[in-house]
Specification:
AB_hydrolase_fold, globular, Rossmann fold, alpha/beta, about 325 residues, single chain
Amino acid sequence: MYSDLPADQLAAYRGSTSAPEDLDRFWAETLDEARTYPLAVEVTPYPSGLRTVELYDVVFPGFGGEPIRAWLRLPARNLREDSDGPLPGVVQFVGYGGGRGDAHENLFWASAGFAHLQMDTRGQGAGWSKGATPDGAGSAGPQVPGMMTRGVLDPQTYYYRRLFTDAVRAVEAMRSLPQVSSVQVDPMRIAVLGQSQGAALALAVSALCPDVAAVVAFVPFLSDFPRAVSVTDSYPYREIRDYLAVQRGQVETVMETLAYFDTVNLVPRATAPALFSVALMDTTTPPSTVYAAYNTYAGPKELTVWPFNGHEAGAIEDDVAALAFLQKQLAG
């Protein structure tokens, strides 16, 4: 059922959050600190038994220089249209609770001819897809189960400061691959992609790495926190509500922290062409919060609306649309 704003109001809705005055400085200092750690990317061939896709186990330094794992999947050399030319790249981020999964999963993008880097998600990867990267930075203060309130009393300690930084470093790792591997990836033709939490990471990267070539964000999470926690009863946003139901005196502090990680506050800095999707019966990422991110996104953009779907949105139809979009945007 529909439980959000009417369609005419959704189309114009731009969110209820305000960006902190020091937002740009906060992220510049965070990324400058991360970049003090050398970008030493380890790429190890992974025995797969596959003929059409090559697999590699990747480790790169994320927030605090901590090792972040990823899978690199490439079309087999003999199947590339131009075996001597650089490949366009897709960096993919994972939904809430999942990790990078098994190496043999998610062969779609490499099969389509892209270099595909799928980043593991620190501290997650036990909810529905395997992960292998701990959240080594720790946290501060009490929290309810899950990641949404880990370190939420201070932007410096909040979980998503570390994860957004990992995502930026994943793009930088993808760009450095020609320096550490015989695999050639075109550093000017790299897109970021994800659904839900993964879409939020893609949107954050689009703002923090303004030279990415394209963005795909399906039903993005972490958008318009003030509205999300008040209009949905679903997890993961419910984690924040559960926390504040006990920590009653921390509402202002928590909302001040979340503003630094709200994609609605970040995407006015984005310039890359973007493809969004929204599902009007989605209670996990309420449609109004997705529209808030879409309407404030500053670059060229397209939106697919699924009137009768929930958080699955367009499923395979979204993937097929993303393929056509990225083939166009990343054409050599």
